[in-house]
Amino acid sequence: MAKIIISCAITGGIHTPSMSEHLPITPEQIAEQSIAAAEAGAAIIHLHARDPIDGRPTPDPEVFMQFLPRIKQNTNAVVNITTGGGLGMTLDERIAGALRASPEMASLNMGSMNFNIAPSAARVKEWKFAWEKPYLENTTNFIFRNTFADVEQVVERLGKGHGTRFEFECYDIGHLYNLAHMLDRKVVEGPLFVQSIFGILGGLGADIRNLNFMKETADRLFGDQYVWSVLAAGRHQMAFTTMAGILGGNVRVGLEDSLWIGPGQPATSNAQQVAKIRRILEELGHTIATPDEARQILALKGGDRVGF
Length: 308
Prior knowledge:
By secondary structure, the chain is of the alpha/beta class. It has helices at residues 27-40, 61-74, 91-101, 132-137, 148-162, 173-184, 208-222, 237-246, 270-283, 291-298; strands at residues 6-9, 44-47, 78-81, 105-109, 113-114, 143-144, 165-170, 192-198, 226-232, 250-253, 260-262, 265-266.
């Protein structure tokens, strides 16, 4: 069996500080949790930046540079920087951190979509910062934009400009076809790292039949030109990543995707989630890929060619 790559999404741009006291906010916290996740078995660390004062997502490259060098100095993990950013950021803002850091990998959403996280606001009893509640509630009228032209611009500026390869985030079946269109036109090239995403309101629902259909469609569209990975939001995280491992896929966990470690049990760290999925997969007979093995599988440029 092929070795399984574990990715860990450390903080994201969805959850807010009031939703979990364990969500890393400051550069120090992001670095510490990234290092611990790598030590627990994550080969890829997916990163957003936060304003250290109030925890809101920030596109500021200088904030990224407060934690990226420390992660590199203390781990061999592949660093994967967001191009999705935070809600309401422009495309230039969303890719600013990645352009500054020139990472081995970056995420790239494969289409525009409704992205509604407003229901999570109803579960918060007390807010730490004034920005959080409207940030969440306003997503009932929010569209995340990534047009075909936007995607091509990111590939041109970051992929071709920096040798960065992508985690192609596919929230729906149509996103796979968008990616296939880009592959046919040679905008992108294999091996494609395709991240199938389930459970976000506005995207594909967390249903096992959808998981199977997503894989069947990707197999048909990409054949041996892609590497498959799965993440699922909230309570679906561990069940879906376990199923992905059974089907031969790679997995992503982390506090960006879920704040839980089990039913009714808040996760206390990213490393806790990595350790759990690693244990499950190893008990199923799988071997976990090292960062260097992930680099070989995904044809990455190497950690010595980044800008931090």
